[in-house]
Specification:
- The chain is α/β, with parallel strands linked by helices.
- It has 3 domains: about 220 residues, P-loop containing nucleotide triphosphate hydrolases (Rossmann fold, 3-Layer(aba) Sandwich); about 100 residues; about 150 residues, Helix Hairpins.
- About 60% of the residues lie in helices and about 15% in strands.
- The chain has 18 helices and 15 strands.
- Strands 2-1-4-5-6-7 form a 6-stranded antiparallel sheet.
- A hairpin with a 4-residue loop joins strand 14 and strand 15.
- Helix 6 packs antiparallel against helix 15, helix 9 packs antiparallel against helix 13 and helix 17 packs parallel to helix 18.
- It is flat, with a radius of gyration of 46 Å.
- It starts with a strand and ends with a strand.
Length: about 650
């Protein structure tokens, strides 16, 4: 069995639809989930078991709740009741030597009548209602619910299995299921019920009279069914003839434009809508044209105006600078004269200043055509860069939309031109309606007749069954007393044989299970001298450990880590003994183990526990060295990202950083 994917919808902390692909890669059996406590790890484990076993699933937080109450509580608090919740599990397993794909879906909704659940089963993509009704028997034949905990378990609770009395309970349940002894137990119970019924059984003395009555009823039913069969054949012919006439008339109706005639009102409405949309769009374009849009036609003129405005600003600045320099030069010459500077030096300074003023005067002598304020260049730049460009883009979009509306209007107008006149089409439509009505009435009569025939068939089957039972009772009346005693003797003998069989089967297979559990323990601990043997009592299913000297070793002599490894070995050994290739799924896989025993599980158990191993770890478990130990065997990693504020969890790819 390979679990390919799981999908959760509004289940527990998972809001909406959350999915994860679980198919492992060759040689990499581990699928690793990381999640904080309360982030949805245990919910994921519950979802797998809920999908497989429904009301019989061993779910962590169900407690004393009924199944329907649990489903109600399992719905995400923020999900609308009508949206419902559900789990979907897709997996493959070998059936008759070939892989078959299965999809089991359980969805439930909160209604006024309470919780309503729907279970759907598909095999190889084909939904099979019968498979859904028989799913409990199907899954129990492959993976009985009583041994599911060997493959799907919580690492934190595994310590309970390392206590002698708990181990015996696990062994008893697992061995009975693995060896099919639960069937023996049910058979023995059925035999006891059979014996009680035989002892209390009395034959009805009116059986012979009932036989005559039942046979008369059967004859009457046969006569009525024969008449119905004849009437049904006649109706089938009439419905077939009318269907052919309707088809011909429908073709004629279409060829005359009948479909367009029926859509005439819709075409008129559509034409009015498109025209209205075009008018609104044209109004938007006119409003745009009333604003800044016309300036788009004067792009080159705006650019020239922008350049002229910049040039005039340069002239204004040159004139201002020239005026300032002239005053400064006059003041400077005056001050230098007062300071007694020589005439030659004054002449030199004056010449330099005049040459400079002459150059600046050439820049300031330009003509001012605009006489605008100094804000004009910036305003022109803003117009060209923002509003005008936006107006152009908007105008192009509106013009394109108007063109599209024109095409739609033209198409609708052409369709309206093809609509036939009312007079021409009404006669054909009336004939078509008359033929269709006749066919529907005959079809309804045929359906009633077939329902009656089905009801008579069920009644006949019931009468035949009653007739067979009464006939057999009448035939065996004389032999009943002798047979009753014989049945009871044989039943008691069979129960005695089953009891002996149970003991022999357990004894025969106990040795193999002991070997597998011990081998698993040695693989995990690598200390073969600590426990040299494990013995299982076939009567009480209690476990006895033997030390290196073959002396009894109490469970209490083992450390906490060794007991947890022993419990893991118990599950691993029994899973191997089952012979079933089932995935292993472990929540909180390292529990409270110390670092040494954590490494033993990470490096020796997880890569070898099964062909597919799903681990649901916290951020304090599979990290650092332990994570490095399993990394070569990991196919996929997921992070259960929990939002405490919203109380929701999302499944994302990746793992803890």
């Amino acid at each position: 069995m390979i679990i390919d994917s799981i999908t959760l919808q509004n289940f527990g902390v998972y809001r909406g639809t959350q999915s994860a692909v679980l198919t492992p890669e060759p040689g990499k059996p581990i699928i690793l989930f990381g999640g904080m406590n309360g982030g949805g790890k245990t919910t994921m484990l519950d979802a797998v078991q809920l999908a497989l076993y429904g009301p019989r699933a061993r779910i962590s937080n169900r407690g004393n709740l009924s199944y329907k109450e649990y489903l109600r509580e399992a719905m995400h608090r923020a999900a609308p009741p009508e949206e419902g919740a559900g789990v979907v599990l897709e997996f493959r397993r070998l059936v008759n030597g070939q892989f078959q794909s299965f999809r089991i879906s359980r969805n439930w909704f909160s209604t006024a009548k309470g919780i309503e659940e729907n279970t759907e089963v598909s095999q190889n993509g084909v939904t099979d209602p019968e498979a859904a009704s028989q799913w409990d028997e199907t899954i129990d034949a492959y993976l009985p619910n009583s041994i599911a905990h060997l493959f799907f378990f919580d690492g934190e609770q595994i310590m309970d299995l390392a206590e002698a009395e708990h181990a015996a309970d696990i062994l008893r349940t697992a061995i009975h299921s693995l060896l099919g002894l639960d069937l023996v137990d049910r058979l023995e119970t059925d035999l006891k019920v059979f014996e009680r019924r035989k002892r209390a059984e009395e034959l009805d003395p009116s059986a012979a009279a009932e036989l005559v009555h039942l046979r008369a009823q059967l004859e009457q039913l046969d006569s009525e069914q024969a008449q119905i069969a004849a009437d049904e054949a006649a109706l089938v012919n009439q419905v077939g003839r009318l269907s052919k006439e309707v088809s011909l008339k429908e073709a004629h109706f279409r060829s005359e434009g009948g479909e367009l005639f029926d859509k005439r009102a819709e075409l008129d409405r559509r034409l009015a809508e498109v025209r209205q949309e075009k008018l609104r769009t044209e109004a938007q374009l006119r409003e745009l044209a009333a604003g800044m849009l016309p300036l788009a036609m004067l792009r080159s003129e705006l650019n020239a105006l922008h350049r002229l405005a910049d040039h005039e600003e340069d002239i204004k600045r040159a004139r201002t600078v020239l005026t300032v320099l002239q005053r400064r030069d006059q003041n400077l010459i005056r001050q230098l004269t007062n300071e007694g500077l020589s005439a030659k030096a004054l002449a030199t300074v004056s010449t330099v200043m005049k040459d400079d003023q002459k150059r600046r005067k050439a820049d300031a002598d330009g003509e001012l055509y605009l006489g605008a304020s100094g804000d004009l260049p910036a305003q022109l730049e803003w117009i060209e860069a923002s509003p005008l460009t936006s107006a152009e883009h908007q105008a192009r979009s509106l013009v394109k939309a108007i063109g599209s509306f024109d095409e739609k209007i033209l198409k609708v107008e052409r369709d309206l031109e093809r609509v036939p006149s009312t007079e021409r089409i009404e006669a054909i439509k009336a004939e078509l309606n008359a033929l269709s009505g006749s066919r529907e009435r005959k079809a309804a009569e045929l359906e009633v007749l077939r329902s009656r025939q089905a009801a008579l068939s069920k009644t006949r089957q019931s009468l035949e069954a009653r007739l067979d039972r009464t006939d057999q009772e009448h035939f065996d009346h004389q032999a009943t007393a002798d047979d009753k005693a014989r049945f009871l003797r044989h039943s008691i003998k069979v129960r005695s044989t089953l009891d002996a069989l149970r003991g022999r089967v357990v004894e025969q297979h106990a040795e193999r299970m002991q070997t597998l559990i011990l081998d698993a323990f040695h693989q995990l601990l690598r200390k073969s001298d600590l426990v040299s043997a494990i013995q299982i009592d076939p009567e009480s299913f209690s476990i006895t450990l033997k030390d290196a000297k073959r002396q009894p070793l109490p469970f209490s002599r083992l450390s906490a880590g060794e007991r947890q490894l022993l419990a893991t070995s118990l599950l691993w050994g029994l899973a191997r003994a089952s012979g079933r290739p089932i995935p292993t799924m472990i929540d909180t896989p390292l529990g409270r183990l110390d670092s040494t025993h954590r490494m033993h599980l990470a490096s020796r158990y997880f890569p070898n526990a099964s062909h597919q191993v799903v681990l649901l770890s916290t951020d304090e478990e599979l990290v650092d060295e332990d994570l490095s130990a399993i990394q070569p065997f990991v196919s996929r990693t997921y992070l259960l990202k929990h939002d405490d504020r919203q109380g929701t969890t999302r499944i994302e790819k990746g793992y803890f950083q």
